[in-house]
Every structure is written in C-alpha cells, then in structure tokens.
Design a protein that fits this description.
Layout (H helix, E strand, L loop, with lengths): L1 H9 L17 H15 L3 H5 L1 E6 L5 E6 L5 H21 L8
C-alpha cells in the first residue's frame, strides 16, 4: 500500500508528512486497510475470509493487528486503491489533517 499510495501522491507533488498542517498525524495506511477489508466483505470476496492477521509495529512503537491477504488479492487491491479510495475517499481522509494534500 505504501508504495502505491505514496507514489501516486508524490507524482502530483505531494509528500505525506508525519503531521499535517493541522498538526494531526497522517496514517492513511489504517484508513486504506479498513476500507479495503470493508470492500471485500461487502462484495462477498473469498479474500475476506482467506486473510490472516499479523502484529504490525508502527515507527512510533504502536502495535496493531493487521490483515494480510493472499498475493492473488493484490491486483484487486491495486484497482480498488486507484479507482475507489484515491478518487472517492482520499479527500475526506486528508480534509482537516493537511490542507496541502487537497
């Protein structure tokens, strides 16, 4: 996710900072992950039930349980990120966090 989303934003001149212009942390990883899981569930995708969880540690030391999907789900994720999250969800995510992203 990091590579796809961050490179898409950097291609238009925006680099995601640790904190936005409103001094709020920017961690779209969580929003994207929750959104993709909901998309899989809502569409009765076999990948929703085929995922495993793992403990992910963020640079600030926080641990979260994260989903890990089969590699075969990657094309679906890329398409969802490019066609759904970025055009329809990213603005709501960044609004109130970093005006420069908009």
């Amino acid at each position: 996710m990091f590579g796809r989303l961050y490179s898409a934003l950097e291609s238009v001149g925006y680099v995601i900072p640790d904190k936005g212009s409103h001094n709020k942390k920017l961690m779209p990883d969580i929003s994207v992950g929750l959104g993709f899981a909901k998309f899989l569930k809502d569409n009765s995708s076999k990948y929703y039930d085929d995922c495993r969880t793992y403990r992910h540690t963020f640079p600030d030391g926080r641990d979260v349980e994260a989903n890990m999907y089969p590699i075969d789900a990657l094309p679906m994720f890329i398409r969802w990120l490019n066609e759904i999250w970025i055009p329809t969800k990213a603005q709501a995510y960044f609004k109130g966090k970093d005006d420069l992203a908009l």
